[in-house]
Amino acid sequence: MWIDALINYYSATQFLENKKAFWPADLHLLGKEILWFHAVIWQAMLMSAELSLPKKIYVHDFYTIDGQKMSKSLGNTIPPKEMVDLFGVDGARYLIITSFPNDGDVDIGIERFKEKYNADLANNLGNLLSRVCKLGEGLNVPEISVNKETFIKLVNQLKLSEAVGWVLENLVNKSNNLLNQVEPWKLSTDDPRRIEVLTECASNLLKAADCLESVIPTAANKIKEQLSGKIKALETTLFPRIK
Q: Are the beta carbons of 81 and 89 closer than 8 angstroms?
């Protein structure tokens, strides 16, 4: 049974139109319980058939709920639709990516996800965009140049949570802290310091959106629409809080 199943990785790329370039795989992503079959048996099958091996194999740990592995028989799974209905597509993508179990099992749950969504997306990223748009409406935002070397390096190492964390720490948190320190809402609209701070924060948001467009594509595009060229009034919250 395993042999028949393993062959599909290769054969599916051969008979589907325009899919042959997908083999050899750049990355073969595995759960740790099936490592033997994929890292030994499958590799041996490919070598015996003189076919190219996957370029890289990455083995991840488990998501758990209350310390138990998710299982249909236990009924403790979190259906993807439930996550999308509650957090939206971008929110669900963000939560899964930033909790990816690449360094030991990760215990998750809806309540934990709610806390992380509200902290990272609603209170942090979303609130920053709201403040910048409200305080800086009409200001010109210069074109940005994004140095994504660190972000890309972390992604290539499959340190996805660390990659997103780097963006939040160096661009989003930095901007929120700057707003709290300078308090531009207390300055006149033509005060150079107010303009400087809001422009810097808008630029940082654009840089963050450029990095995170593969994680939260809809939100990243909305940030770009709001801040490219001129800061525009925000009509709807980027990430509404969830109770």
A: no
C-alpha to C-alpha distance for 168 and 77, rounded to whole angstroms: 29
* Alpha-carbon gap, residue 52 to 72, rounded angstroms: 35
Order of all β-strands in the sheet with 68-69: 68-69, 63-65, 106-108
**pTM: predicted TM-score of the whole model, two decimal places:** 0.91
Bridge partners, residue 69, by sequence: 64
Write out the two tokens for 199. Answer: 């422009």
Q: Which of 229, 57, 226 is nearest to 129 (CA)?
A: 226
Task: Yes or no: say if 43 and 6 are a contact pair by the CB < 8 Å rule.
Answer: no
For 196-205, b/e burial (b = at least 16 CB within 10 A) is: ebbbbbbbbb
SS3 156: helix
Instruction: Residue 70: name the closest of 99, 27, 36, 41 by CA.
Output: 99
In the prediction, which pLDDT does 2 show?
Answer: 79
Of all residues in the chain, what percent carry a pLDDT higher than 70? 100
- 70 touches 99 (CB < 8 A): no
Q: How confident is residue 26, by pLDDT bands cut at 50, 70 and 90?
A: very high
Nearest to 165 by CA among 232, 119, 115: 119
